[in-house]
Amino acid sequence: MYFCFIIDDEQMERFFPISHLTPEQLCNLYRDACEVGRRTIQYDKPLEQEYYEISLPDEVILKNIRGGNRSYIVFHRDFEDMPDATTVAFMLAEHPYTTAYINIDNSLLEEIRP
Length: 114
Description:
By secondary structure, the protein is α+β, with helices and mostly antiparallel strands. The protein has one domain. The chain has a seven-stranded antiparallel sheet, covered by helices on one side. The chain has helices at residues 23-36, 58-63; strands at residues 3-6, 12-17, 38-44, 51-54, 71-77, 85-91, 98-105. The chain is built from two helices and seven strands; from the N terminus they run E-E-H-E-E-H-E-E-E.
């Protein structure tokens, strides 16, 4: 199951849940995605549409990646002011309102190991 937002024939943002992956598989995906993508950690201020970039070491992020509905992939194509990219998002279990994002240029996707 996925959610897709298509604005017109060219703009698209498509969400794919990855809840079927185990925590170990999610950690491997995080490591692989970090090799080719840009990592950002965001704290979303509750009840407000504000967020702050924060810094957390990889060890803390990997310790807080859980299975279930806490992680997803978003494919962007000509969507708003965003570059064409795929974002892998990992919500962190012990850090409420905090998500680790890895943004990968779509031309680099084939570099991630299967």
